[in-house]
Structure prediction request, 88 residues.
Amino acid sequence: MHPDRMPSISLGVIVPIGARYNSHHHWRTDLGAVRASVRFEVGGYSYATIQGEPTALRELAAALVEAADHAEEAEEAELPEPVVRVGS
Prediction:
C-alpha cells in the first residue's frame, strides 16, 4: 500500500449566510503548476483558506452546489401538501 501524499484529516466548518469570500489569490509552484485559494471570514475573527489546483477547487464547488441542492430538495419533500378548500 502506498503512503498518502498528504495527511488525512476530518474537518467540519459551519459557514453562515453573509460570510465574506476572497478568491483573488493564485500562484505557481516551484515546478510551475498553478494553484489558487479561497479565503472566507466570519465576523472578522474567524477565517479559513482552502487551497488547491483549479480543477480540485471546481470539483469542491460542484460538490457544495450538489449538497445544497439535495438539502433543499429534502426540505421541500418534508413540507406538507397545501390544503385547498373550495366553497363556504
Summary: The CA atoms of residues 21 and 40 lie 4 Å apart. The chain has a mean pLDDT of 84. The longest helix spans residues 54-78.
